[in-house]
Prior knowledge:
3-stranded antiparallel sheet, CATH 2.40.50.100, about 20% helix, 4 helices
Amino acid sequence: MDPKTLKFAPxxxxxxxxxxxxxxxxxxxxxxxxxxLIVIDLPAxxxxxxxGKSFGEIESVKAVSDxxxxxxxxxxxxxxxxxxxxxxLAEDPFDKGWLVKVRVDDPTxxxxxxxxxxxxxxxxxxxx
Length: 128
């Protein structure tokens, strides 16, 4: 997926909407900040996501970080390849490293997320 076509949450999750199904992942910046990834905990199919609430955790050698839902809806698919091999996320966060697919309750909610340029500006302003 081309990151320039995605929407981003300030917490570094990205969203790609196709009809009423949103694919959610985390940005290259977030992966790079976490460094050596160890394990990821993702929700089960059928779980309900609430914007701004944790839907899973990712553990690296540095820390355990929550994954925050950028949209609300029901999980319809989980990337089991990433669950069993978290290095896929490190290698390719925008394609093979997607995390979950969610049937979105309100597709217009994506309008409140950042576009690529706004996200890049936010990242540039953050301390690294």
